[in-house]
Design brief:
about 20% strand; alpha+beta; globular; single chain; Beta-Lactamase; Trafficking protein particle complex subunit; 5-stranded antiparallel beta sheet; Longin-like_dom_sf; Sedlin
Length: about 200
């Protein structure tokens, strides 16, 4: 069964999304999507005849909705340290970010400082009928969200994946031809994300 990954921008719109998994799994999901008439780009269902029962058995259709539904939980965890927050984000990423400069001055070589990857990585933030949702936030305000339809890897593997994608995203932002919140259609970016997923998520 496929794993769904999406980068969501400031306006809660997907900048990049991909279904990861074996070709057979994705092909089966694509077949279901075609028959059910889902529109992934608009995060909406075009076919009024699609039932919730069919959707629950169709990860490709459901994954964007599951990820989008988790945004409120991500925001709560990010700023207020909601119940989904792990021990490193118990005070909220926003609060840590606002006072992080002072801590970073004294811990400049410590990646686990107040502004380090440990606080950008939110871990598991939601569940939906056996699927787990993990998240990572960037300093630019983008949200990296993965919907795992099978048991996700451990936090160390997840964190490595998110940090790798975050680095790719930063390089994209630094491209003078890229506009903020523009969809990312680069084949190079897509390949590198899939390579990271193969290394850390799909083993």
């Amino acid at each position: 069964m496929s794993t769904y990954f999406v980068i969501i921008g400031h306006n809660d719109t997907p900048l990049y999304e991909v279904h990861l998994g074996s070709p057979i799994d994705i092909e089966n999901s694509n077949t279901n999507t075609s028959s059910n008439g889902a529109n992934l780009n608009n995060l909406s269902i075009a076919s009024s005849g699609t039932t919730s029962g069919n959707l629950l058995n169709d990860p490709l259709n459901m994954s964007p909705f599951i990820a989008h539904a988790a945004l409120d939980i991500v925001s709560d965890t990010e700023w207020g340290g909601g119940a989904a927050a792990n021990s490193n984000t118990s005070q909220g990423f926003g609060a840590l970010l606002l006072r992080g400069n002072a801590s970073n001055n004294s811990n400049s070589n410590n990646s686990g400082g107040a502004n380090g990857p440990d606080n950008l990585f939110l871990g598991c933030v939601d569940h939906f009928y056996g699927s787990q949702v993990t998240a990572y936030v960037t300093y630019q305000g983008a949200r990296l969200i993965t919907v795992h339809h099978t048991t996700p890897p451990d936090n160390a593997q997840l964190k490595s994946f998110y940090i790798g994608v975050h680095e790719l995203f930063i390089k994209t932002l630094m491209n003078p031809f890229y506009k903020m919140d523009q969809a990312i259609n680069s084949e190079v970016f897509d390949k590198k994300v899939k390579d990271l997923a193969q290394k850390y998520l799909l083993k």
